[in-house]
Write a structure and sequence with these properties.
The chain is of the alpha+beta class. It contains 3 helices and 10 strands.
């Protein structure tokens, strides 16, 4: 038995449900962690959220963390993100472009896994084709990473936020519609090159579509090029900023 799914984490409503004794009547806590025109890892504090059609309350990671905070306070319930998405209505600023949707699907699911979520309900499949930084570069707050342990060894997901958290800002102020770039156009202008510790002689890099590149390691290090698109790496060490 779940509560009615909340469109964004309406923590005031949830506080009222708890005060009325409703928390003990549900088995799991459901909310719709929809996302506006922000990268999935955008997590402003709830006291800074704005309301309205383009409100910053429509953020993924911040809402997920607020939901977990309330669960910790009120008593354990399994968290059910019941409406995660990457909206792709063409040429609307508040939605994802087709290229960005692929990036954001990958990062949304990776962040949910890192935050301890067991299952994410996706809305809807026909619409689109913090744990902690985990040592991507602890001296640079704009470089982000997630590290997972698997039977095949460590798997890293790395990206950069040097171009910020707000997407597709190059349109007329106050305008809803804009000419979305074609999916093959790379919209991340800032590229950051890093040398990371490799576990062996090569590293597999997968982009948001699963396209693979083999990167050759030299002297225990491999060169990667990061931007706003998350990429998956097999073959880095469990501490990629330090020698193996």
């Amino acid at each position: 038995m779940l509560n009615a799914g909340l469109a964004g984490i309406d923590h005031v409503w949830t506080e009222n449900v708890h005060a009325a004794g409703g928390w003990d009547l549900i088995d799991g806590f459901a909310f719709h962690p929809g996302r506006g025109n922000f990268t999935p890892d955008y997590a402003p504090p709830p006291e800074e959220w704005t309301q309205g059609d383009n409100g910053s309350y429509g953020n993924f990671l911040g809402g997920l963390r607020k939901a977990r905070e309330m669960i910790a306070e009120y008593g354990h319930k399994e968290l059910w993100p019941t409406e995660a998405y990457a909206c792709t209505k063409p040429n609307i600023w508040w939605h994802d472009t087709y290229r960005r949707a692929a990036e954001n699907v990958l990062l949304t699911l990776a962040l949910a896994k890192a935050e301890g979520v067991r299952c994410v309900n996706w809305y809807q499949l026909h619409d689109s084709v913090l744990g902690k930084p985990q040592m991507a570069d602890p001296a640079d707050p704009d470089l982000k990473g997630l590290l997972f342990s698997t039977p095949e060894g460590p798997v890293s997901i790395l990206w950069s936020r040097k171009d910020g958290y707000l997407l597709d800002t190059d349109h007329a102020p106050g305008s809803t519609w804009f000419a979305a770039p074609e999916p093959w156009v790379d919209g991340w202008p800032t590229k950051t090159e890093l040398k990371l510790a490799a576990a062996g002689s090569s590293v597999r890099e997968l982009d948001r579509l699963g396209v693979e590149r083999r990167l050759t390691a030299r002297d225990g290090k491999v060169k990667v090029r990061l931007d706003g698109a998350p990429r998956v790496y097999y073959g880095l060490t469990a501490a990629p900023d330090r020698p193996p």
